């Protein structure tokens, strides 16, 4: 085959490499022959096609064959160093696909370690699972918990910013499980419930926007976990509102935005204050607000807090008052909060209790 012909065949493979089941019937044999030729000449695109074509049950071009898939991925890690092939090999060895169903945990641990070092979430999951149970490695629940915690924070930010296709539901579910059982962390049903609530919100969003295989089972597992842990919490744990001595939810919104549009209004004998995030491309404005005591978890870019009946304004305002702020700072006096735009105090409020009602 000439170089020009090889380039043509390579482009043909590239066209259908990730959608082989869409190949026209009359092109199926041509595609198979092109891939076989490419594999014989160590073309990564051909090895990728044959490896994933042979993975599991196979497809319309290649029958399922775990040994072929493994051998293709072993070549690909040498040729490309791509972490995704290390991850796929990890799964093959973890489930003993080429060993009569007998797991090869030590090999799986080696390959998942490379995938995890490249930041692949699936590899990090499995590495944490292996540390937790001591499969193919020293048992270390603490190491497992550290891996899951680091994944949690990264995935939480992605989800809060609108990344519904991510793995936050799975990570939060795992972290909740660690707190429920006390594996690598101090046992805490309160923390477990918090993370299960976040997992529930994340899986609902993912299922609303995508159709991922297995997500129905994930959602069922989360529901079961919430029901299980709820029974362990004291009867007086749950409440209809959340009270704090600081406007901490506004601080959470500020951390995700470039500022807040704040409105203060009268509410009966006191006041309520509403903050709405001002977003940019780099600051999405949404934050995940989780209050397990209220059974509450939502992505929000707006929060309203009620002030206690003794609240007073230290700077005269006409209500309803509006201001744009970039900072909230505690004043020199007790219970005084300054809502600032840069160095200017836009609102100054003395308030000992801020209440969130959902």
Summary keywords:
single chain; alpha+beta; four-stranded antiparallel β-sheet; 12 helices
Would you mind describing this structure in some detail?
Strand 4 (287-291) and strand 5 form a beta hairpin. The chain is elongated, with a radius of gyration of 27 Å. It is α+β, with helices and mostly antiparallel strands. It has a 6-stranded antiparallel sheet, covered by helices on one side. Strands 7-11-10-9 form a 4-stranded antiparallel sheet, with helices on one face. The model has no long low-confidence stretch (mean pLDDT 94). Helix 4 packs antiparallel against helix 5 (83-94) and helix 10 packs antiparallel against helix 11 (215-230). The protein is built from 12 helices and 12 strands. The protein has helices at residues 3-16, 25-40, 44-54, 66-80, 83-94, 105-117, 121-133, 141-160, 168-181, 189-209, 215-230, 248-254, and strands spanning 242-244, 259-267, 270-278, 287-291, 296-300, 302-307, 312-313, 321-325, 327-330, 336-341, 344-350, 354-356. Among the domains are: 140-237, no CATH class; 242-356, no CATH class.
């Amino acid at each position: 085959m000439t170089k020009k012909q090889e380039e043509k065949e390579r482009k043909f493979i590239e066209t259908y490499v990730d959608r082989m089941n869409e190949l026209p019937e009359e092109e199926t044999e041509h595609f198979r022959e092109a891939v076989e030729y490419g594999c014989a000449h160590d073309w990564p695109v051909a090895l990728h096609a044959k490896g994933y074509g042979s993975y599991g049950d196979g497809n319309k071009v290649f029958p399922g064959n775990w040994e072929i898939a493994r051998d293709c991925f072993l070549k690909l890690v040498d040729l490309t160093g791509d972490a995704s092939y290390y991850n796929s090999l990890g799964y093959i060895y973890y489930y003993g696909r080429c060993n009569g169903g007998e797991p090869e945990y030590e090999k799986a641990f080696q390959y998942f370690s490379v995938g995890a070092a490249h930041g692949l979430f699936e590899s990090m999951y499995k590495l944490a699972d292996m540390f937790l149970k001591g499969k193919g490695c020293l048992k270390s629940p603490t190491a497992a918990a550290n891996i899951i915690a680091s994944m949690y924070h990264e995935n939480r930010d992605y989800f809060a910013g609108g990344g519904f296709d991510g793995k936050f539901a799975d990570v939060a579910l795992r972290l909740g499980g660690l707190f429920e059982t006390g594996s690598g962390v101090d046992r805490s049903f309160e923390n477990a419930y918090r993370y299960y609530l976040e997992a529930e919100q994340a899986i609902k969003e993912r299922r609303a926007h995508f159709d991922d295989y297995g997500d129905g089972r994930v959602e069922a597992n989360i529901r079961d976990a919430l029901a299980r842990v709820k029974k362990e919490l004291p009867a007086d744990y749950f409440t209809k509102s959340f009270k704090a001595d600081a406007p901490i939810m506004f601080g959470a919104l500020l951390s995700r935005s470039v500022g807040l549009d704040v409105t203060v209004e009268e509410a009966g004998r006191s006041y309520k204050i509403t903050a709405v995030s001002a977003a940019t491309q780099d600051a999405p404005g949404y934050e995940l607000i989780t209050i397990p005591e209220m059974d509450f978890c939502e992505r929000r870019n707006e929060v309203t807090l009620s002030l206690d009946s003794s609240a007073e304004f230290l700077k005269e305002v006409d209500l309803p008052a509006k201001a744009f702020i970039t900072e909230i700072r505690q004043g020199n006096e007790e219970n005084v909060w300054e809502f600032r735009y840069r160095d200017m105090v836009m609102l100054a409020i003395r308030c000992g209790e801020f209440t969130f009602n959902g």
